[in-house]
Amino acid sequence: MAEFVVITGMSGAGRSQAANHFEDLGWYVVDNLPPALVPKVQEFADAPDSGVSRVGLVLGLNLYYEDVAPALVELKESAEGSVRILFLDASTPELVKRFESTKRRHPFSSVPPMGVSDAIEAEREALVNLRSQADVVVDTSEYSIYQLNRFIDEVFDLDAGPESVTTRIMSFGFKHGIPLDADLVLDCRFLPNPHWVEELRPLTGQDEAVKDFLLNGQPMAETFLQKTEDLLTMLVPAYVREGKSYLTIAFGCTGGHHRSVFVAEDVSRRLVENEELGVRPLVIHRDIDK
């Protein structure tokens, strides 16, 4: 029985790049597939002599977006193997920049005629329900092609097992925007800010001096870390029971250099040490180099 991943999302957010990488990983990829043909591909892949075990479906949304959601419901109900939906997103300013740099016309800009920004917002509104169905949502606004490829490697090429959920721990800076793909967002700005200590300013939350400052300078820090571990110990199994295979937990501070980095590293360590939880934390510090 074949395993399916459906690659969908906003135009310009990286569907083609993702499809190319899935193909490099050995998946049988069908690009720009009309939803009406999904059952045909499924029938072919599930045939005993097909020789296909992993199928990537890139759904073209410009003409068929109203038909995508029903096709995915049917695929999930009828496929013998697993079906996961990857939704690629990006901020409107970043998508505008990408369309302007490539001189491509946005697929939603023709009827009725509208500018790129309005077309992006029209597509975003049209895809709200589809986004809510996705198993994995990734914001590619800050991603290079290499970073997107690494993300796919981490999420789709790991065998976490049916009783596990792939967990990504992210640090970020609120001044750079909240991650669009976060399932949980926790604010670390109640901790004292190492930025205002001259010798700590050039360091990050990965440095021992910053860790010591945060743990010794704020009695609530250890309590916050323990309560966060307790929260995740309760929530992760609940997400697994609901069939969620991927979870993004984002910790934010002002700039994304000190407090959020420290908390993300510490929480990740705690999850690794919690063997009964059985998660595989992937740590990403989104804004540490900004």
Number of helices: 10
Helix-strand pattern: EHEHEHEHHHEHEEHHEHE
CATH level-two architecture of the largest domain = 3-Layer(aba) Sandwich
Helix amount, in percent?
Answer: 40-55%
Largest sheet: 5 strands, parallel
Strand content: 15-25%
Tell the overall outline: globular
Distance between the termini: 45 Å
CATH-assigned homologous superfamily of the largest domain: P-loop containing nucleotide triphosphate hydrolases
The number of domains is 2
Average pLDDT reading: 87
User: Unreliable segments (pLDDT under 50, ≥5 consecutive)?
Assistant: 158-163
Rg: 21 Å
CATH topology (fold) name of the largest domain = Rossmann fold
How are the strands of the biggest sheet laid out side by side? 2-3-1-4-5
Number of strands: 9
* CATH hierarchy class name of the largest domain: Alpha Beta
Class from helix and strand fractions: alpha/beta
Output the keywords:
five-stranded parallel beta sheet; four-stranded parallel beta sheet; alpha/beta; 290 residues; 2 domains
